[in-house]
Amino acid sequence: MATVTTQASAAVFRPCASKSRFLTGSSGKLNREVAFRPIGCPPSASFKVEAKKGEWLQGLASPTHLNGSLPGDNGFDPLGLAEDPENLKWFVQAELVNGRWAMLGVAGMLLPEVFTKIGIINVPKWYDAGKEEFFASSSTLFVIEFILFHYVEIRRWQDIKNPDSVNQDPIFKQYSFPPNEVGYPGGIFNPLNFAPTLEAKKKEIANGRLAMLAFLGFIVQHNVTGKGPFDNLLQHLSDPWHNNIVQTLGGN
Question: What is the mean pLDDT of residues 157-162?
Fold first, then answer.
């Protein structure tokens, strides 16, 4: 819900160009301050509108277990799934990892299609990749991936339950991670050495959420149209009035 403060006493205003700030708030606030000068009054009068953090829907207060301290926390938990602190801890890490996989997945679905279309490479579309012949059968690859992912996920779960307990590689003893924040191991997983600042965490979780929605959109789009996202985009741009979601859902 927006907070509005005013110091003006006159009923007629005209804009004053002396002061205007946008997106200059701290702690995740979205601030906009615009100064107005009433006719015949000194230029000190102002009108300030400030959007508060943590309210994903205007007028709907955040639940008590979401206090805005987590990156990307907008107070969204309509089902109360994160009321238990232990569940919240797990959900935070689950969303972070799924967001990262979604960003990789969306890039892996979109970029090969684009590069193949413009002639840089020649690879199958993502929805046809399973039909290709690899060094092993699909069932063998599935078993290998299941074992590897199972091992990694168990180690990640152990780190969530007991931070820094899995920093030492159990097989290759010469490899280890320094103490780190859960979910941000650094080292080889951070080759560019980005600092895990609050602002960086917010950007990552926002892009991860967007990627999860994009991944779902790609799946649904292909099931409806039988094409990939880039092909659908080119088709839409060629005739926007007839190649769009309305016409597609209408069966035209």
Answer: 87
